């Protein structure tokens, strides 16, 4: 069934251009898009009663490393800063292969879907033992989420002064060739696309200056987006100053890594000039508050970014540094963290929800997603607010101030992915069992 009428929602937080909030209204989904919004719509297709529910656009995740769901809470990585954390995990990741990539991606995407996410990017930057980006793209198609995988990479190993072990780095020519392969095979630029591929060297401290520049040239030639980690913590800034003689913003600008087709993860340490640069150039930011807390990286200046007009989306980041992949909980954390830095009026629940929906869609250059408006893609999350978490709440802002953090129903491209809190597209129990088997093998 690809036609639905969602009936009588308590509140629809549309996140449309006027940020309308509708009460007792209906939404008609057909042929992948939102066909009509209004009161007392005729019942067409399958009817989904939304009495007692808040309806929002599907949430958008702009930064993840799905493979890391296999390395949650690894001892030795639990209490380390970024660079030490990476050095603990690299040897474990070097034993991954295609099965680890596919199963871990199914787990990560299932977790996202159950927390209201309809569109996720992923940053896969290591390809040991025959693993390919294809493994994660298959997983996303199976779950039914809209997917923006990025072909990541690392090329500077320990013997060349980089951070990763030599066994996890690739030759730069091979990296660029595989980027071309996956773009040509999977990238779909059309409106309503379910898969868009990006190019994403891991970080300035794990690839060369030449690869950063060549990646930007390739992405522009192919018309795809660019993504990397930037200015994540103080160690990252110190590395940039020592090795490149400039701050990360300057490094990015010099190599073609600013523009509306670029988004950077973290940006915790951007200074005022760099925030201006990002605003002027329409460069996007993936804000990852839980990961930044977990790794003690700091509080990203999201208030200043938003005030300057920088495009900001939300990311759960990899599950080795969160270690949850719940995007609704992440939105709450984004709201709380700005308040720690700037006071109780620094970010409202509605603004955090906006960042988590249309904000992320804009970062990924998907104006066809992230809002409930006629003609936009039918990506919808339905939240039951009759349960314990929201019992006694006065306002739909309770969604982030109180909960729930799991959806009742989820639609992607007018197809139902979650119903009554259960995934319809995969047998979750058997995927969890497979994930447990893989973890046991990695531990052995
Ligand atoms: Zn990351």
TrEMBL record:
Residue ranges constituting the Amidohydrolase-related domain according to the UniProt record: 54-389
Keywords assigned by UniProt, alphabetized: Hydrolase, Metal-binding, Zinc
Superkingdom per UniProt: Bacteria
Chain ranges passing through the membrane: none
GO MF annotation terms: 8-oxoguanine deaminase activity; deaminase activity; metal ion binding
Record-linked Gene3D superfamilies: Metal-dependent hydrolases, Urease, subunit C, domain 1
Entry keyword Metal-binding: yes
InterPro entries recorded: Amidohydro-rel (IPR006680), Metal-dep_hydrolase_composite (IPR011059), Metal_Hydrolase (IPR032466), MTA/SAH_deaminase (IPR050287)
The UniProt record lists the keyword Hydrolase: yes
Pfam families: Amidohydro_1 (PF01979)
EC number(s) reported in the record: 3.5.4.32
Family, as annotated: Belongs to the metallo-dependent hydrolases superfamily. ATZ/TRZ family.
Protein name, per record: 8-oxoguanine deaminase
Organism the protein comes from: Thalassovita mangrovi
